[in-house]
Design goal:
Rossmann fold; Arc Repressor Mutant, subunit A; 3-stranded antiparallel sheet; 11% strand; binds glutamic acid
Length: 464
């Protein structure tokens, strides 16, 4: 049987970290087995579903490169299919009309609660051999209920959580279509998983409770039961439930916050899954390795430091032109176009070794393209009156050399010797004058890139 997995988000919000990991695992499983990966939009909650959320989910998947082979299928566009299957079930007697009124069900619920029982449907309209059903009321449009088996157990070997058994006696007859004819959530999932030929259902473990009901309905439809893998939740850095602060935000926020998709993917892949102690691997490698046996059943904990570390790795490894295009966009967003020399690629070659965030990288190099503003404390600390004669001498010498890092280095050394100083005494004020900060890569390389004219122009105002 061809492997077929699906990602089935409800478009009620962004694609957040948990959803992205579910999508990644489903995608990787299909890839590994040469199967199909389907995107299905579960938009039957019309009140809460929005086109903007659909777009946000697709943007997130696109950014991560999680391409689907089929879809997106929208459940709202599949109503006719659901209605047909409903009718088949009614005809087969695996579903039935229930005319219990809201008031009646409410009273039943109250009575059960008072008796300390779990509220459940009493089976009034459930057809049974030898049972006479009540007379059908005229003014009540019926709902459709699934005729859940009443004995036996539902068992499945969850690929993450192990064997799970639920007694049928614990389940009542689920409403699968409302009085207005619209099918309900669990029913749509079942019809879709069946018709789309899903072989592995990989999803969050908030759906574990739906699984026995879904298996019963799939059985009633004569479907082959897919395998289920319920992924544990992701906790924040602090061990608490994910919140807006860490990860419950859109994956696109990670783009905005300076992360490369490669880093986010690699990070997500290790969130609850492992392959020995491998930490850094690309998606091709991941798809070869990925299996459902090495997913931990316990909750995974978010670790921002590790994500940053991976991001640093992928920034160093990035294709230079791709990196330059990304940084150009970030510079422009800050109204700093890399419009003049030096060439951005050369600047990045000098800087990317020390970066683990794209926004930080863009901020760090902005001084090449716009005049930096040093903070007063740095100016006061490093640009002291005592050092100015040495800087004056240096700038005169720099005006007359062939502009290479080696030649610049040589001149700085000469001045350091002449004034009997330590190298940083000269390098630090230069950094502050040229870059606006006291941290930069080696100052001769910075100056070489900045250019002779620009370097001297930035030193000059300090000499007055
Ligand atoms: N639509 C459900 C959700 O977004 C997922 C259902 C499923 O994967 O079966 O949580």
């Amino acid at each position: 049987m061809t492997v077929c997995t699906r990602f089935a988000p409800s478009p009620t919000g962004f694609l957040h970290i948990g959803g992205a990991r579910t999508a990644l695992f489903s995608w990787a499983y299909a890839k590994k087995h040469g199967g199909k990966f389907i995107l299905r939009i579960e938009d039957t909650d019309v009140e809460r579903s929005t086109p903007a959320a659909v777009q946000a989910i697709m943007d997130g998947m696109h950014w991560l490169g999680l391409n689907y082979d089929e879809g997106p299928f929208y459940q709202m566009q599949r109503m006719e299919t659901y209605k047909k299957v409903l009718q088949t079930m009614l005809d087969a007697g695996t579903a039935y009309h229930c005319y219990s009124s809201k008031e009646e069900l409410e009273a039943l619920r109250e009575q059960q609660t008072l008796q300390g029982l779990k509220p459940r449907y009493d089976g009034k309209w459930r057809p049974e051999a030898g049972k006479t059903l009540p007379a059908i009321p005229k003014d009540i449009p019926p709902v459709v209920r699934f005729k859940n088996p009443q004995t036996g157990v539902v068992v499945w070997d969850d690929l993450v959580k192990g064997r799970i058994e639920i007694a049928n006696a614990e389940m009542d007859d689920l409403i699968i279509a409302r009085a207005d004819g619209t099918p309900t959530y669990n029913f749509c999932v079942v019809v879709d998983d069946f018709e789309m030929g899903i072989t592995q259902v990989i999803r969050g473990d908030d759906h574990v409770n739906n699984t026995p009901r879904q298996i019963n309905m799939l059985n009633a439809l004569g479907a082959t039961i897919p395998q289920y893998a319920h992924l544990s939740m992701i906790l924040g850095d602090d061990g608490q439930k994910l919140s807006k602060r860490h990860g419950a935000v859109s994956v696109m926020q990670y783009h905005d916050d300076g992360y490369l998709p490669e880093a986010v993917l690699n990070y997500l892949a290790r969130l609850g899954w492992s392959h020995g102690d491998a930490e850094i691997f690309n998606m091709q490698q991941f798809c070869e390795w990925f299996d459902l046996d090495h997913i931990t059943p316990s909750a995974a904990q978010f670790n921002t430091e590790k994500l940053n570390w991976l991001n640093g790795h992928y920034i160093k490894e990035a294709n230079m032109d791709v990196l330059a295009a990304d940084i150009t966009a970030r510079l422009q967003a800050n109204r700093t176009g890399p419009s003049r020399a030096p060439v951005l690629n050369d600047v990045l070659a000098l800087y990317r070794e020390r970066a683990n965030n794209l926004n930080q990288l863009a901020r760090d190099i902005a001084y090449f393209y716009t005049l930096p503003q040093a903070c007063a404390a740095d100016v006061e600390k490093h640009i002291t009156p005592e050092i100015m004669p040495a800087i004056q001498t240096l700038s005169e010498k720099l005006a007359n050399i062939n502009w290479t890092a080696e030649a610049i280095h040589h001149e700085i050394n000469a001045v350091v010797t002449q004034y009997e100083l330590k190298f940083p005494k000269v390098a630090m004020p230069l950094r502050v004058m040229l870059t606006g900060t006291a941290q930069s890569p080696s100052i001769d390389q910075v100056m070489a890139l900045l250019g002779q004219k620009e370097t001297l122009a930035r030193i000059l105002p300090n000499l007055a």
